[in-house]
Amino acid sequence: MSMQHLHIRNARLIDPRNGVDEQLDLFIADGRIAAIGRPATDFAAQRTIDAAGMIVCPGLVDLSARLGGIEPELGAAVAGGVTSLACPPDSKPLLDEPGLVERLVRRSDTLGLARVYPIGALTQQLAGERLAEMNSLARAGCIAFSQAKQAIVDTQLLLRAMQYAATFGYAVRLRPQDDFLAREGVAHDGEVASRLGLTGIPVAAETVATATALQLAAHTGVRLHLSRLSSAAAIELIRQARCAGMPVTCDVAVHHLHLSEMDIGYFDSNARFDPPLRSASDRDALRAAVAEGLAAICSDHTPVDADGKQLPFAEALPGATGLELLLPLTLLWARQTKLPLAVALARVTSDPATILGLDAGSLTVGGPADVCLFDPEESWCVTPEALRSQGKHTPFLGYEVSGRVRMTLVGGRIVFAA
Question: 111 vs 89, 127, 158, CA distance in Å?
Fold first, then answer.
């Protein structure tokens, strides 16, 4: 749908970055926020949207969403109110060559759905042996560099990668896990793994890698972001680093705010994640860290087909669909922790936008009109049929959740309407 002059009225407008939370009208023109509250004298609305009972907020910004079939996954994104997403380098195709990055950017631009921001491979083929051509990848559109789930075992190479990135001002994103300590592990090294006979991944696998990354980042001055932390101990290391003045940032996957190792149940492969679901005390520490603003929230969207999930737990592929659940699960966490809605929405709008360095995550006058309009009270059941993503697997199947996206705008265009 082409851009229109839009007037959205009677909604509760929440813009965490600008400290706005009140009933205000929103005016959109030429793909940008034209005015809030009152329009300019020469503004003439081509369409008026009555949003009584709804919340208008910035479009969600997702720090980690893998794309298989790009069209259905971006369709799932806008259906979930996500207007900007960072695509890890282990998506298909693997983002270690400029031509592949350019193709992804062109394809997403052509579709005109959610904005896609590629994260380039830190090393060639993510093999951890030779540095990727970061300059070429950055020119092709990459906004940061990562190893995705693959660790760099050679710490000297990791040091060189950080030095190179720091020289050119590139951000480095790591998912901290020591591959030797995690070797062959499929679940948290706790009572559930012991009872089920599953090989465990100790918390030390995360903290050893976190401590190493923090030390190297302090030495090089690189902008470091640690992705999808899963343990209280790793969060404490981040807190100490921040207190020491390091500009390190981090995020937590939304499912880790709600689930623990107990949700594996009797070998439920839908609860197979990487990093694994950890103890209830770890989950509670993650919830507290996100509440205080130490970490942002990501969907960790990883669509897995039936062939990858309908296997014994240890053989099943880790991951779950998450784009369409990011908003309702964030709202659920906010209700459970009695957190103001504006604070909760900041963790999926302005905070991740700041981490990624994007002009997104706010409703600033003159800024891009990336907008999510949702009904906070409308409940719906998470079923495979209700999900637009090609990945229908999630441990939240059967859950009754509240928060239904009614409309999503990207650059002033209505890209989804329920």
Answer: 20, 31, 36
Q: What's the pTM value of the predicted model, to 2 decimals?
A: 0.97
Binned at pLDDT 50, 70 and 90, residue 2 comes out as low
- Average per-residue pLDDT in the chain? 96
Count how many residues are written for the chain. Answer: 418
> For residue 289, what pLDDT is reported?
98
Q: Which long-range contacts (CB under 8 A, 24 or more apart) does 193-202 make?
A: 193/261, 196/264, 196/266, 196/267, 196/313, 198/313, 198/314, 199/314, 201/177, 201/275, 201/276
**Residue-wise pLDDT tens digits, 173-229:** 999 999 999 999 999 999 999 999 999 999 999 999 999 999 999 999 999 999 999
CA neighbor of 157 nearest in space, from 174, 138, 169, 136? 174
39: preceding bond cis by omega (within 30 degrees): no
User: What whole-number distance in Å separates Cα of residue 230 and Cα of residue 282?
Assistant: 7
Which runs of E-coded beta strand occur in 125-248? 144-146, 171-174, 187-188, 200-201, 223-226
**Closest C-alpha to 5, from 38, 41, 37, 33:** 33
Angle, helices 203-220 vs 232-243, to 10°: value is 20
How far apart CA 306 and CA 319 sit, in angstroms, is 12
Would you tell me the crossing angle of helices 232-243 and 280-291 to the nearest 10 degrees? Answer: 30
Q: Per-residue pLDDT tens for 314-346? A: 999 999 999 999 999 999 999 999 999 999 999
- Residue 164: both structure tokens together: 């190179």
Catalytic sites, residue numbers: 300
Residue 337: which residues within 8 A CB-CB, separation 6 or more?
Answer: 287, 291
Instruction: With residue 379 as reference, give the H or E element that holds it.
Output: strand 371-381
What is the Cα–Cα distance from 314 to 382, expressed in whole angstroms? 25
Distance in angstroms (rounded) separating the CA atoms of residues 216 and 152: 13
Which run of H or of E encompasses 306?
helix 306-309
Question: Alpha-carbon torsion 56, 59, 63, 69, what sign?
Answer: positive
Instruction: Look at residue 82 in the predicted model and tell me its pLDDT.
Output: 98
Residue 209 class from Cβ within 10 Å (0-12 exposed, 13-18 middle, 19+ buried)? buried
The tokens for 171 are: 């951000």
